Amino acid sequence: MDTIFALATPEGKSGVAIIRVSGKNAFQLFEKFSCPPVNPNEMGLRTLIVNKKLLDEALILCFGEGRSFTGEKVVEIHHHGSLAIIQRCLSILGGISDFRMANPGEFTKRAFEHGRLDLSQVEGLSALIDAETTAQLDQAQRVFKGALGKVVGGWRKDLISSKALIESAIDFSDEDIPQDLLKLIRIKISVIKSDLRKEIDGTIISERISSGFEVAIIGAPNVGKSTLFNALLKRKAAITSNIAGTTRDVIEARLDIGGIPLTILDTAGIRNAKGSIEKTGVKLALARAKNADLRIFVSDNNIFDSFGLKVRDGDLKINNKSDLKKNKDVDISISAKFGDGIDELLEIMVKIFKEKVGKASIAINERHRNSMVRALNALDAAERELNSGMKNIELCAEEINIAIRAMDSLVGSIDVEEVLGEIYSKFCIGK
Question: Is the pLDDT of residue 247 over 80?
């Protein structure tokens, strides 16, 4: 396998730049830079010499095989971030036999191939790099540190144990096996199914953390939706006027509150529109509002239901223009124009979304959810076969195998040796 290298810091001039090298011949670079080698798993300050000329003074970190991110020998060169030095170092490394520039994501690929990361951790690392808010960061860190792998590993262990019991019943029926074998298997399957349902439900929240929760501001024309939109963003992002129907489309903007990513939607005033453009805007507003994670109904006359959209549990009712009209039958009264109540509204929104974030799954994307759904369906089928007793026990075993393979797609693999190992340890078959 080739030794690969790449710039590990962003391109461009900087105070410090880092070039990472990974592969079996990584330590050969010291010879090219005419400097003494650094011992594995140590660091040292070295003067880089090229063609008997000083190139730079750099801090060099060396990692031995099995001790690095990729699992291979790795060298990191921390040098001054001059564009000339970066290009010269990369050029020199490219001239070493069996050295080549790394492909996108290849360091992470090698970490996976050497068992340093499982598939879910690779996805967690990608999410970690893309994180923009603390909620996204916390979620990515959990997956990158192996939280999903640990949970799935526990499920797989119980399924392997169940499979081992079934294999024992099939192949060694005359042995002294537990009388309540089917009950033990049924309990294990039931517990895993319950956990899977919880995680599957929570992936919707996890994906929202990644993409941003949607908050729709809804109301009749000219009640102050766009003014509220601007007040929440603390900038003028939507045009406001006294003319009804000024906003004819859905305007959206990103907002980070309490570390939680939100997309705020300023919807077109919902009413019986006349023109085709306005009708399209109202139709789009209705569609986006129905699917929003939080709907904020704004009114200045105590009428909130609008054009078929009715206030439901979880929606917020806001009385706007509180400087002009008072209304007690609402969640909060504000004056978007003058900023009264905006901080209180933001606190309410933070509380709502923190409760939602607390229900997030450790699984974070559609691939994870699909794998868990396949596993759940297989365990449903296994449970049905199990209800027929020993008659369909082999079919039950096969459905458990399908569930295990679904989990394999998340974090790893399993072979027959693990099942045999369970049988040997519990029933002394080898003696």
Answer: no
- Which residue type is seen at 388? S
Percent pLDDT > 90 in the chain is: 51
In angstroms, what is the C-alpha Rg of the chain? 30
Q: What percent of the chain has pLDDT over 70?
A: 83
Strand partners, 5: 21, 101
In this structure, what token pair is assigned to residue 20? 């990472």
pLDDT per residue over 177-225, tens digit each?
555 777 888 899 999 999 999 999 999 999 999 999 999 998 887 888 8
Cα-flanking dihedrals φ and ψ of residue 251, to 5°?
-100, 135
288 touches 268 (CB < 8 A): no
Contacts with 234 (C-beta within 8 Å, 6 or more apart), sequence order: none
What is the model's pLDDT at position 259?
93
* Helices 134-144, 147-171: crossing angle, 10 deg rounding: 40
Q: Is the separation of the CB atoms in 320 and 336 below 8 Å?
A: yes
DSSP 79-137: EEE-HHHHHHHHHHHHTSTTEEEPPTTHHHHHHHHTTSS-HHHHHHHHHHHH--SHHHH
Q: Which of 22, 63, 3 is nearest to 39 (CA)?
A: 63
Locate tokens 């868990």: which residue? 372
Distances (CA, A) of 103 to 3, 17, 20, 107, 333: 12, 19, 13, 8, 56
- The answer to whether 121 touches 142, Cβ cutoff 8 Å, is no
Instruction: Show the domains of the chain with their CATH numbers.
Output: 3-113 (3.30.1360.120), 144-207+364-427 (1.20.120.430), 216-349 (3.40.50.300)
Average pLDDT across the chain, whole number: 84
Least Cα distance to 290 among 269, 317, 308 occurs for 308
Q: Give yes or no for residue 29 having a pLDDT over 90.
A: yes
Q: In this predicted structure, which of 51-60, 267-276, 311-320, 341-350 has the lowest mean pLDDT?
A: 267-276
CB 36 within 8 A of CB 49: no
CA distances from 318 to 298, 332, 362, 431 (A): 5, 5, 34, 75
pLDDT, tens digit (0-9, with 9 covering 90-100), for 382-407:
999 988 877 788 899 999 999 999 99
Record the pTM: 0.78
Half-sphere exposure of 82 (CA within 13 A, CB side): 10
Q: Are strands 332-333 and 43-50 parallel, antiparallel or unpaired?
A: unpaired
